[in-house]
Every structure is written in C-alpha cells, then in structure tokens.
Amino acid sequence: MADYKNVSKLNSIDLSSPHIPTSVSLLKQACIDSGFFYVTNHGISEEFLDEVFAESKKFFELPLEEKMKLLRNEKHRGYTPVLDELLDPANQLHGDHKEGFYIGIELPEDDPEAQRTFYGPNLWPDSDILPGWRQTMEKYHQQALEVVKKIARLIALSLDLDADFFEKPEMLGKPIAVLRLLHYGGQVSDPSKGIYGAGAHSDYGLITLLATDSVSGLQICKDKDAEPRVWESVEPLKGAFVVNLGDMLERWSNCIFRSTLHRVLGNGQERYSIPYFVEPSHDCVVECLPTCHSKQNPPKFPPIKCETYLLQRYQDTHADLSTYNKP
C-alpha cells in the first residue's frame, strides 16, 4: 500500500529575490543533493494556475470516446490513455494508472521546422466542446517557459557558467518544451503488487516544472542503488512549483547535479498534476560542460544529439500506437 511516512525537506528558491548569491547557493545544494526543489514568487498568478487546473479537469471529464479522438500521434501530441505509459517495467505489473495530454510548441504544418520529431501542430479539443481551452493552455505554455528560463539562469551560475549560457539559440532559444496534463483516477497503488500511479523513473530532459493540486502522491528516491530503496514524499506547497532536473542536465554536469528517481503512488484520491518538460533544441549536442570535468574527473558520457536521445526514451516508455484501434 502507499507509504507516506518519510517527507523530503526540499530547499525553496524565491525567484523574486534580489540576492542572487543566496538563491544560487540554495539551488546548487539542492541540485547536488536530490535535483528537486521548490520555486516561489515565480510570476504566474494562483488565479491563473487554478484556471489551468480547472480546464485540465474539464478535458479529463469528457467521455473516453471523445478523448480517444485525440489519441497521441507520432509527434507525441494529444491524449495518452490509462496504462499507455510503462515507466518501470522491471517492477510494474501494467502501465501507469494515469491518463494524460501532451501539448508541444505549436507550429503550422507548412513550417519546415514542423517536420522535426518534436515540433508541429498540436491536437486540440473541439472549441464547441471546450471553449477557450486551447487559449488557456497556450498562455500557460508561454508563461511556464519564462519561469524555466529564470531557473536556468540560476542553474548556469551554480555551474560557474555565464548566466545566459542556456539561452543560446541551440538551447532554450529554440527549445523542445512539452506541457503535459495528468489525471490520476483515484486507484490505490500497491508496490508489492506492481501497481503504481506512475512507475519509478527519472525525467529525460533539462528541467521539469511541476504544478500539482493539493493531493500527495509524488515520491523521490535519492539513492537508486540502495536495497531496499528509501522513498520520501514531496508534499505540495501552495503557490509553488516543484522543479526537478532531468537526465540531460545530469549528463551535461558530469553527474555533479542529480536526476533523481521519482514515482507517484495513488492513495485513493483523484489527483491532477501538470509537468512542463523543457529540453534544448533538436540539434543541440549534449556533452560535458567545460566547468564540470578535469583530469581527475573526466567526462563520463559521450556526446549525444538531443533529438536522438529523447526519441529513444519516448519509444522505450510508451505503448506502440498500433495497439490502439483508432476511431
């Protein structure tokens, strides 16, 4: 059954603070320790966040046949049904007990860049069914990216890089940014039986910005090699985002910074969350940063192109689209 006895104590970074060295110090400590932290005073109003969650709920309350009309495509846009995603095949009986909806950066089909793996037009619910839904999600997509850029400046400083290091055109100047609405239907997780809201995994990319409702469920494991693993709950903090680092940043930093295992356990309550995954551009080559290696600590990973890496990770964790009978 779900276990919430251990609560993680995460650093909280105030993005409005004028005292940058303090923010950088708190963030660096968090990135070395667990790769998870809170950010407050981020610039997105609570009223608007409440609106985004309300609109997300409206979508998931639609009949399944309506949602399946927007089944995710090859570009990972659209609806992901319950059990579609299998994040921890070694320990999960089935896929994750959650449903989701992917929204990427919108590009028209006639834009040459729309041919790239993670670019292109989004799938949207009919405006007659959910009026104003698309506009709300596009607005949030844009605002969330601005929050991530603020965090990226602090991360760059904490790695002894120029503050604008991640703002280059090949990085966050032209990012792959994916908003994902998630709904956990209220199943009770039982790790002893392989039943999870979301199986244990680390995120693929650079930074994940997570908005949650008030229902607990997220857990992290700081030492994935420990036997047995020790899991700590990350509690929702009103008005704050939970931020975690992805595997690309761990590679970039030569494992100085952590991309930590996390999972979601259902406790019988419905739960909504909205992660926002931010990666550099398709062609960005992820290789050890100049400040993160030395003769004593040589690079641990070979360079890899962002698009190549992401595509493989998505293919590894999602059901083949041919398994669905499309309407």
From TrEMBL:
Keywords for this protein: Iron, Metal-binding, Oxidoreductase
Fe2OG dioxygenase domain residues: 175-280
Chain segments annotated as coiled-coil in the UniProt record: none
The keyword Zinc-finger is annotated on this UniProt entry: no
Pfam families recorded: 2OG-FeII_Oxy, DIOX_N
GO molecular function: dioxygenase activity; metal ion binding; oxidoreductase activity, acting on paired donors, with incorporation or reduction of molecular oxygen
Family, as annotated: Belongs to the iron/ascorbate-dependent oxidoreductase family.
Protein's recorded name: Fe2OG dioxygenase domain-containing protein
The species this protein was found in: Lactuca saligna (Willowleaf lettuce)
